[in-house]
Amino acid sequence: KRHRHHSPLRVLRTRSAFGDGDVCFGQRGLCLCADPAGERARESEGRAVSAAARSGGQGTGKRTEGRRFPLGAPEKERGIMGVIGLLMRPSELMALVKLKKQIGVWKRRSAAQEKDADWEFCFDMLNKVSRSFAIVIEQLGDELRNAICVFYLVLRGLDTVEDDMAIDNATKARLLLSFHDMIEEEGWDLHYGYKDEKVLLEEFDRVVRAYRSLKPQYRATIKDITRRMAEGMQKFTEMEVTKIADYDLYCHYVAGLVGIGLSQLFSGSGLEDQGIAQDEALSNHMGLFLQKTNIIRDFLEDHEDYNEETDTRRVFWPKQIWGKYTDKLENFTFGKNQEQAVACLNHMVTDALRHLPYSIEYLSNISDEQNFLFCAIPQVMAAHTLALCYANPDVFKGKIRKNLGECRNTHPVKIRKGLSAKLMLETTDMQATLSILEDAIDSLADKISPTDPSARETIEKVQLCRDLIVQGRRSSSPSSKVASTWRQETSKATSYVAEQCTVPLLVLLFGITAAVDVPQALGSAWWQSEAVPAKLGPVHVWLTSLALAFYSLTLLLLTRGAALSWCKALSAAQVAMTAAEVVFSPVVGLSVVVQALPKLLLAAMLPSCAKQRHSRQLFAKQQAAMGNRRVLRPRPIKADKSY
């Protein structure tokens, strides 16, 4: 069924396949060069112009999506809280500053390339219709940058035609199915769309000339993907997503094909092996992982985009999954039936997780550094977003704002901007990418409940991803990654030492406090020392009591697998107590330092130990709930002919 205001293909392809203010930077709000307020103003203006033009019989269609500004941009209050949050996380603030500088470097390098008037138009339009994609493309080499720029603009033009509801169905079908041939014709243009897209189509002959100047292998790829995507657009105008197979096929058309096209462009450039282009299944899985992450996260926004004329909603979750938990999806919106809603959400996340191992395999096959970053950054952002969505009832909550036909959730579930920037900067090679993905997988695994209906399958997917990450670390080449590997191994060794030594150190400090400090506090010290008084003052009596209670509570929480937040608070309390003991200590000199160092060491090791023990205990419970069934690795992937 069609929807008057939004085309599903348009919305989701521009979200995921090209990362328009979304996946490429993990969050819609991380488009650092964008002007959200100005973009919204231009968006509203363009919608009004489009509506006026259509009512005046000029035949231009209403702009239906055009999300060039960061969706879910925070309101004034949330903006203030975001600034406060950044100030409380200096590392993320520094990451944002560094990312801004890095984007400037990419832009200056791109600007140094000599371009004629047609190419200047293409890159200018790319910045107007998709700012975030324009940013991420800047770091590529000149030849690939040009080819992918044209690739995007051609598909954007195709999408504008498909999205213009002023075009009758017969004309639209003819234009869609012949678009791949028309991009070969000199002087060809159209007069549909509005605002920037309208300019793009009216001067499409410039894009055609730029396209014709590309190498033959690039032109062949762009033409073929355009044809296949147009056929998919036409197919889903009369088709709904009900089965998981429909869901996969839909995501293939709107994102998988883009991944396949990019792989063919990489291979055609000579920077990657021909096998990258030939294995379409891997490229398709990579696109599906990004696409499904967005569909899961944007459930409420999509569902609330209601069309009164056709009495329909935009629904992309397959009924084969949600039908197990409810009769109608509206039963899940705005906190209703939260238990069943979260169970359905977890099932959807589990379905998306089956594509991550293939994405990891795809990334391991990329050899060029720039191409690797182009592919890896969206994947790590999607993985962390998926982990954030798992078992998160806020996916079904939020604030919906409808304005001139646009439906937007102003409080979406998303990872922080600073964290997104930090992850982008840390995604430097395969080893670093595997560590980031491992963090996302561990975060998701910590939230798995053995009582969840899909827990068994989720644990299998998590274990498979972990196995693949371990395998990837063993097979990765050490060249140019020695420093990164050293840091990762040092971090793992530190975590291991913390896990093994924290409890013995706690027991030791508890014993010393009970054997030495308590008798001294009671005035019955069993040793004699001129440097230390036989009886301590009231402050030290209070500190000794507090230390005993602290050590007892910490031992109890650690043995029971305490949450990391509790252990962070206890670590801060230990630092405060140690500082108080140093200030009020009757002993001076080196003895104070000797007494304080073990306690500070305990405070440093406590969070790491708690994280390791909590993860191990939780996973052991999950395995026990599964009956200790062995998880098998999948068979090698073969290209699916249905794609």
Uncertain residue segments: 1-75, 477-485, 628-643
Helix content: 55-70%
**Number of helices, where a helix is a run of at least 4 consecutive DSSP H or I residues:** 26
Going across the major beta sheet, what is the strand order?
1-2
Terminal CA distance: 22 Å
Oligomer: single chain
Q: Tally of extended strands?
A: 4
Order of helices and strands: HHHHHHHHHHHHHHHEEHHHHEEHHHHHHH
Largest sheet: 2 strands, antiparallel
Report the β-strand fraction as a percent range: under 5%
General description of the model:
The chain is mainly α. The protein is 67% helix and 2% strand. The protein contains 26 helices and four strands. The longest helix has 41 residues, at 482-522. Mean pLDDT is 74; it is low at 1-75, 477-485 and 628-643.
Descriptive terms for the model:
two-stranded antiparallel ribbon, 2% strand, 4 strands, 643 residues
What's the SSE blueprint?
Elements: H1 8-17, H2 36-55, H3 76-88, H4 90-111, H5 117-129, H6 131-137, H7 142-163, H8 169-182, H9 195-202, H10 204-212, H11 216-236, H12 244-268, H13 274-278, H14 280-297, H15 299-303, E1 306-307, E2 312-313, H16 319-322, H17 338-353, H18 356-365, H19 369-389, E3 400-403, E4 406-409, H20 417-426, H21 430-445, H22 455-475, H23 482-522, H24 538-559, H25 564-584, H26 590-625
Antiparallel strand pairs: 1-2, 3-4
In short:
Helices cover 67% and strands 2% of the residues. It is mainly α and 643 residues long. The longest helix has 41 residues, at 482-522.
